[in-house]
Specification:
The chain is mainly α. The chain has 2 domains: 392 residues, no CATH class; 62 residues, no CATH class. It is globular and about 70 Å long. The mean pLDDT is 90.
Amino acid sequence: MNRYSWGMLKRFASEALAGSTTFVAMVVVMAVLPDVLCGQALGTTTGFSADAVVWSTAIAVAIGCVLMGTIGRLPIAVGPTYGQAFFLVLTLIPAAAAAGSAEPWRTALGATLLAGVALLLLSLLGLRTVVLRAVDAQLQTAIGCGIGLLIAAMGLRAAGIIAPGAGAFRLVLDLRSPDVIVCVIGIVVAGMLQARGWRTALLIATVVAFVSAWLLRSYVPTVLPQWAAIDAWTASQIQSAAVPAQAIGLPARRFDGFFSLDIAGAVAPQMWMPTLLLLFSMLSDSTTGLLALMHHGGFISTNDDPPVRRAMIADSLSTCASSLLGVSACGAYAESNAGIASGGRSGLTAVAAGVLMLAALLCAPIVEALGNYPPASAPVLVLVGAAMASQLRRLQWNDPAASVPMLLVIVGIPLTSSIADSMAAALLASPVLKLVAGRARETSLLAWVFAAAMLGYFIWLR
């Protein structure tokens, strides 16, 4: 083997290792995303099938990674994100139900495809960052923080730490409940590992939490029968923490979500504004996350570099594919930092991560066991939400014209669980307050178009 061939082989091995690092950091999405989309983590039903979502998630991540690796030529993993999953469940599905859809989840997928196509067109025309700049950067950050707080709150709710009360939530934190104990163990383990820089913190914490749940379920009834007899135990979900009979096997072959979207329902007038807000959420979430990863890895120096457009086209195509497969919109995974730090410098890293995600379907019994017991996966939602909300430190509150719209989303989204209404109120308030403050020149024409659309939403569609 000559020196060139040996160098190529070493480079391939390095990129493949980096891809495997990214995969291990993000694979927990296969267990958590079905909980969210099926409503199990929220205590409701949505119409999605858990087995179908497992299939769709793995394939959507694989497609997103391959697209980013081949078109974007970057070591960045792309797939369905938690924030967009919550948007679909808490905003698009209720809007579709209010519009009279017989199967709201299909209509929500149709709206996701329409938003994905619009995002792709903006990417092809080079207008994606132009549209994004029409909205105050502080407000964009605040929207992400509000969604993060909602995700964290829903994680705590899945574990029974908080529950619906007279206000939005009431604190329960009953340490006699095995669900609460399991979630607290997961949060503590994840926090400790993250503090030590472990890229696999969330995966390890989920496994530790589930093992803790299995031990409690197996031994408490015999060792501490008085504990197993109290209401906090009998009302918990601990009985669903069962170890699978086998570790290897494919999910049940259910493909309910494949090409099942309802486009006709998605174009109903009641769906226009939720779809527009989904588009804006995707613009803000995926664009900022993608640019942050590209800057962090040193792949670009400015937001106008050619790789940016290729990457944006790749992640837009990923969202179109994910809606056709039956899952929520896609974005760049922050876990890609793990692969980049491990030496990933090319698209081969992303492709390797995508291939491994497909291979993970063979471990479906383990994935399903983790997903069947929401308190074990709740720490992931809490930590992901906390990471998103950590951007609160970047916000400046000394400007009332900016702070009021920010407050509308930071407080409104987690308290009302309505991402759309809170975003609409903030997008309407932002230019109006700047106008009243005598700073109309700071607001672009496109921002006023957004504000007019939000006003129409509250008057005629809400």
